[in-house]
């Protein structure tokens, strides 16, 4: 039997940094409560573990309940400027793990908005990252996610366009072409982070070579669902599992070349546990 792991699988740089920081804060914390604003990642195993260690999830509407000395972890997606100001006023300790790539987008938007440019964000208006970025230009951005939406945009004198970090390059390019016809003086920044693209391409390549493909990740993680779809197109025996125990012998017993990939919210230890379970089920590890 051969187990092949996709070249890029699991945590990206930003998520890894965020989770490591959360665990370091738990170690350091002597008093005060630790919260994360929304789930730090879409992985119930990690959320449960953090909860057991005293980290609670709080939603934006409940932030009023925080008081001086409480700690709030701001996740990789980042938040609006208004929210930072609100937390600072309440003397909440901010542990900011906004991904540096997202921070860069926020800084660009803030700078050009203050220089008098209209702001255009290409991305999903409901995505927390886009909501946060829009909060650096007083929520005045034109948020576009399709050519149709771009065509409906009014003519602008000068504007600055940025991309949601997880956009697909081609999608951005097509929409940007339309935006170009709508703005007299356009400055744009391709702020796409290639972590998602690399993970998807690696999964696609691997799925073509194997007999069965295992996609590990949270059931509600959209990037994991996307990986599953990509793998299904290239390998008919594709299974999405959240936890190692979901892997059954039936899934792999007929196959000798097994591929493994994992969504951005899957920790390394879960991937390793799945690898161990494959070996146990196939009778190549007798240590259970
Ligand atoms: S996908 Fe890219 S931008 Fe998003 S958290 Fe990961 S490294 Fe940062």
From TrEMBL:
It catalyses: isopentenyl diphosphate + 2 oxidized [2Fe-2S]-[ferredoxin] + H2O = (2E)-4-hydroxy-3-methylbut-2-enyl diphosphate + 2 reduced [2Fe-2S]-[ferredoxin] + 2 H(+); dimethylallyl diphosphate + 2 oxidized [2Fe-2S]-[ferredoxin] + H2O = (2E)-4-hydroxy-3-methylbut-2-enyl diphosphate + 2 reduced [2Fe-2S]-[ferredoxin] + 2 H(+). Keywords: 4Fe-4S, Iron, Iron-sulfur, Isoprene biosynthesis, Metal-binding, Oxidoreductase. Dimethylallyl diphosphate binds at residues 42, 77, 127, 221-223, 265. Its EC number is 1.17.7.4. The active site is at residue 129. [4Fe-4S] cluster binds at residues 12, 99, 193. Binds 1 [4Fe-4S] cluster per subunit. (2E)-4-hydroxy-3-methylbut-2-enyl diphosphate binds at residues 42, 77, 127, 165, 221-223, 265. GO terms for molecular function: 4 iron, 4 sulfur cluster binding; 4-hydroxy-3-methylbut-2-enyl diphosphate reductase activity; metal ion binding. Isopentenyl diphosphate binds at residues 42, 77, 127, 221-223, 265. One of its GO terms (biological process) is isopentenyl diphosphate biosynthetic process, methylerythritol 4-phosphate pathway. Its cofactor is [4Fe-4S] cluster. Pathway: Isoprenoid biosynthesis; isopentenyl diphosphate biosynthesis via DXP pathway; isopentenyl diphosphate from 1-deoxy-D-xylulose 5-phosphate: step 6/6; Isoprenoid biosynthesis; dimethylallyl diphosphate biosynthesis; dimethylallyl diphosphate from (2E)-4-hydroxy-3-methylbutenyl diphosphate: step 1/1. Coiled coil: none annotated. NCBIfam families: ispH_lytB, PRK01045.1-1, PRK12360.1. Belongs to the IspH family. Catalyzes the conversion of 1-hydroxy-2-methyl-2-(E)-butenyl 4-diphosphate (HMBPP) into a mixture of isopentenyl diphosphate (IPP) and dimethylallyl diphosphate (DMAPP). Acts in the terminal step of the DOXP/MEP pathway for isoprenoid precursor biosynthesis. This is 4-hydroxy-3-methylbut-2-enyl diphosphate reductase.
């Amino acid at each position: 039997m051969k187990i092949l792991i996709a070249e890029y699988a699991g945590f990206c740089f930003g998520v890894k940094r965020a989770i490591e920081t959360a665990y370091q804060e738990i170690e350091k914390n002597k008093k005060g409560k630790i919260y994360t604003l929304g789930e730090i990642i879409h992985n119930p195993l990690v959320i449960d573990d953090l909860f057991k260690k005293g980290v609670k999830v709080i939603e934006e509407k409940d932030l009023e309940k925080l008081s001086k000395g409480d700690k709030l972890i701001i996740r990789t997606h980042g938040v609006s400027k208004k929210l930072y100001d609100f937390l600072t006023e309440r003397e909440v300790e901010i542990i900011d793990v906004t991904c540096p790539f997202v921070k860069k987008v926020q800084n660009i938007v803030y700078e050009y908005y203050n220089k008098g440019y209209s702001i255009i964000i290409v991305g999903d208006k409901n995505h927390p990252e886009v909501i946060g970025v829009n909060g650096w230009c007083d929520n005045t951005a034109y948020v576009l996610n399709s050519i149709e939406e771009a065509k409906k945009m009014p003519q602008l004198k000068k504007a600055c366009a940025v991309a949601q970090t997880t956009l697909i390059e081609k999608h951005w390019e097509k929409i940007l072409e339309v935006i170009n016809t709508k703005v007299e003086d356009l400055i744009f920044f391709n702020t796409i982070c290639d972590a998602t693209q690399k993970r998807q391409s690696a999964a696609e390549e691997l799925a073509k070579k194997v007999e069965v493909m295992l996609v590990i990740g949270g059931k509600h993680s959209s990037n994991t669902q996307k990986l599953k779809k990509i793998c299904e197109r290239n390998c008919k025996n594709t299974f999405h599992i959240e936890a190692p125990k979901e892997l059954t012998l039936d899934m792999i017993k007929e196959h000798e070349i097994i591929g493994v990939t994992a969504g951005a919210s899957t920790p390394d230890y879960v991937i390793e546990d799945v690898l161990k379970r494959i070996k146990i089920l196939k009778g190549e590890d007798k240590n259970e």
